[in-house]
């Protein structure tokens, strides 16, 4: 199955997928395209090093959200994409893309949904909220994408303990290493092997 990975930053979750593919853990997935929300992000370099084709589709290059969403869908379809992974992608996916790929778009979120999710919860903000609330366990969730923020059916979750003295940065790193980088490749394997 030809997979596109949508990114907005450094691409650590993209790298987890690249590594899983290299280790033979994604036998039914072809990482065919990486689409960035802006040029110059390190994820594009990761993709290039792995021999994956890249594209940039920036919201500010289009007069309307509809035009942007149409450009995203055209980019995906012109590359024969069959499934999509949002890996640190910070934009809402348009309804036209969701409808074109029903139950074939995965998102990784750095909390145990339904905690600390929805509009405005991304990146360090999620971990800041978890620490402010005083939770003892957090983690990551892979879910299918629908037309609302962090609302689609949960595919996999993994818990991570909050440790004394954690900062948002240390917690973010532990959640990535112990949860995100493990469950995202597993979820993509489930999707591409028809086991979802």
TrEMBL record:
Keyword Transferase: yes
Catalyzed reactions per annotation: N(1)-(5-phospho-beta-D-ribosyl)glycinamide + (6R)-10-formyltetrahydrofolate = N(2)-formyl-N(1)-(5-phospho-beta-D-ribosyl)glycinamide + (6S)-5,6,7,8-tetrahydrofolate + H(+)
Formyl transferase N-terminal domain residues: 1-188
Active site: residue positions: 109
A GO molecular function held by the record: phosphoribosylglycinamide formyltransferase activity
Enzyme Commission code(s) on record: 2.1.2.2
Keyword set, alphabetical order: Purine biosynthesis, Transferase
Site residues by UniProt (Raises pKa of active site His): 150
UniProt xrefs under Pfam families: Formyl_trans_N
Positions that bind (6R)-10-formyltetrahydrofolate: 107
InterPro entries documented for this protein: Formyl_transf_N, Formyl_transf_N_sf, GART, GART_AS
Top-tier EC class: transferase
Gene3D superfamilies: Formyl transferase, N-terminal domain
Pathway named in the protein's UniProt entry: Purine metabolism; IMP biosynthesis via de novo pathway; N(2)-formyl-N(1)-(5-phospho-D-ribosyl)glycinamide from N(1)-(5-phospho-D-ribosyl)glycinamide (10-formyl THF route): step 1/1
Function, in words: Catalyzes the transfer of a formyl group from 10-formyltetrahydrofolate to 5-phospho-ribosyl-glycinamide (GAR), producing 5-phospho-ribosyl-N-formylglycinamide (FGAR) and tetrahydrofolate.
NCBIfam families (UniProt xref): PurN (TIGR00639)
Family: Belongs to the GART family.
HAMAP family: PurN (MF_01930)
The protein's name in its UniProt record: Phosphoribosylglycinamide formyltransferase
Source organism per UniProt: Ruthenibacterium intestinale
């Amino acid at each position: 199955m030809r997979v596109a990975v949508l990114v907005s930053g450094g691409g650590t979750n993209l790298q987890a997928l690249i590594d899983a593919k290299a280790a033979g853990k994604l036998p039914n997935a072809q990482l065919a395209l990486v689409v960035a929300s802006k040029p110059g992000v390190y994820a594009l370099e990761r993709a290039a090093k792995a021999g994956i084709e890249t594209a940039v589709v920036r919201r500010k290059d289009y007069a309307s959200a509809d035009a942007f969403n149409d450009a995203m869908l055209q980019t995906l379809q012109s590359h024969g994409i069959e499934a999509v992974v949002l890996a640190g992608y910070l934009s809402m996916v348009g309804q036209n893309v969701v409808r074109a790929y029903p139950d074939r778009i995965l998102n990784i979120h750095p909390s145990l949904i339904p905690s600390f999710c929805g509009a405005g919860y991304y990146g360090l903000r999620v971990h800041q909220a978890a620490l402010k609330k005083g939770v003892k366990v957090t983690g990551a969730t892979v879910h299918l994408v629908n037309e609302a923020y962090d609302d689609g059916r949960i595919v996999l979750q993994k818990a991570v303990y909050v440790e004394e003295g954690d900062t948002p940065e240390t917690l973010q790193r532990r959640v990535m290493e112990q949860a995100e980088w493990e469950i995202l490749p597993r979820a993509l394997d489930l999707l591409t092997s028809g086991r979802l």
